[in-house]
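User: structure tokens for this one?
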Amino acid sequence: MVGERRNLINVRAFITPDMLNDGHDTTVDYAGNWTRSFLTPLLNNTNFNGNKTLILVTFDENETYDIRNQVWTLLLGNAIPPNLRGTTDPTYYTHYSCLSSIQANWGLYHLVFFIPNVY
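Assistant:
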């Protein structure tokens, strides 16, 4: 309808900060402050944070490149079952396993099906 605000959002989105806000050229504190200022309004917006919303926040690099790179990931949003909120999982995840989990849970096409040992 003309003049009606519809509060529609994308079903899927990939958002990545610039080199300052992602911590590459700054500090973890700088990146954390940006992340908080970016996500807080989204999490408080009922149009965005509906029952199926999942936000994956990943910090993925070590300062020392000769040790195993652990991908630290935080899951946010109302898609997280209440009994799993505030819990931790010691499983070793990679970029590919995170992507694979999202694709499997939401029935999406697997972009990495041809890469061995990603699951």
